[in-house]
Amino acid sequence: MTDRVYPSSKPTTTGAAPGGTTAPAAAPAKSHLYNPTRPTYRPQAHRRRPRRSCRSICCCCFFWFLLVLLLLILLAATAGAALWVFYRPHSPTFSVSTFKTTQFNLSASSADASSSGHLSAAFNLTIAARNPNKKITIFYDPFTVSISSNDVILANGSYPALASSPKDFTVLKPTLSSHSRDLDADSVTSLRSDLKKKSGLPLEFQMDTKVRIKMGGFKSSKVGIRVTCDGIQAAVPKGKSPSVASTSDSKCEVDLRIKIWKWTF
After folding, report:
1. Quick check: helix, strand or coil at residue 35?
2. How far apart are CA 230 and CA 29, in angstroms?
3. Quick one: which of 212, 226, 204, 109 has its CA closest to 147?
4. Distance (Å, rounded) from C-alpha 184 to C-alpha 159?
5. Per residue, what are the HEC states of 111-124?
6. What is residue 16's predicted lDDT score, i.e. its pLDDT?
7. How far apart are CA 194 and CA 106, in angstroms?
8. How far, in Å, CA of 203 to CA of 155, rounded?
9. CA–CA separation, 40 vs 232, rounded Å?
10. Helix H or strand E segment including 192
11. Distance CA 25, CA 213 (A)
């Protein structure tokens, strides 16, 4: 009886290793597995450069405007300080030396003293103008002169233009007059009441003009000034002799008159 040979159930080896040992089977190829720790690639869209808004442009312009303005103010302040140190500018001074009333006739329109009336008056003044600066020349335009008492204009006048050199002393002798000036009832009453006082009629003297200064080769633009002198007590002249007013308590002030459009400050 012949023996039958059955095939083995074990898998056949691919070959034998040298020395008669069986070589192990090759490891199967590894598959590409998903790595959960790796970030997912997402393509980014192309971003346009944002445009500058109108608000940011306005803020930038305002910043540069403010910076330039501050620089100009700083330069002006520096130049003003340099001029002040070198020239030491001072405003001119005025004083009333003599004040004479040569005519003062107040007449009412009727027998009633409280009614409206007319005034004829004439005054002669001597004004001393001083330029206290050492290196500055002052040029005056023609003066407009007026005399008033409690806001009632008594007389007007003028004085020609002049130039005041450094450390100069100038004497001004304006003459003011009025002929049959019309006055209302309140003005007549106020003047008659003041004329009865022992101290006399309180007067205020004003001069308005424009000035410009010269410092070396620099000439400024014209600026308006007003000279106001008060504290003058006058009496009505008797006969043909003029009445000399008391000027011991008089004081004069010089104020700038800056005109902006229709207003003067």
Report:
1. coil
2. 120
3. 204
4. 28
5. CCCCCCEEEEEEEE
6. 47
7. 12
8. 11
9. 101
10. helix 185-195
11. 117
Round to whole Å and give the CA distance between 238 and 88.
Answer: 48
- Which residues make Cβ contacts (< 8 Å) with residue 185, sequence separation at least 6? 114, 115, 116
pLDDT along the chain (265 residues), means of 10: 52 50 53 57 57 72 88 87 77 93 83 70 94 93 94 93 94 92 88 86 93 87 93 86 88 83 53
Q: Residue 78 half-sphere exposure, CB side, CA atoms within 13 Å?
A: 6
Q: Which amino acid is at 67?
A: L
Distance CA(253)–CA(92), nearest Å, equals: 10
Structure tokens at 91: 């405003």
Residue 230 has phi, psi (to 5 degrees) of: -125, -175
Both tokens of 52, joined, read 């500058």
- In the chain, the amino acid numbered 178 is S
Q: Where are the beta strands (DSSP E) in the chain?
A: 93-108, 117-130, 136-140, 143-149, 152-159, 162-164, 169-172, 175-183, 201-215, 218-219, 223-234, 243-244, 251-257, 259-260, 263-264
Using CB atoms within 10 Å of the CB of residue 94, give its burial: 0 to 12 exposed, 13 to 18 middle, 19+ buried. buried
CA distance 101 to 123: 5
CB contact at 8 A, 138 and 164:
yes
**Most distant pair of Cα atoms in the chain: their distance:** 193
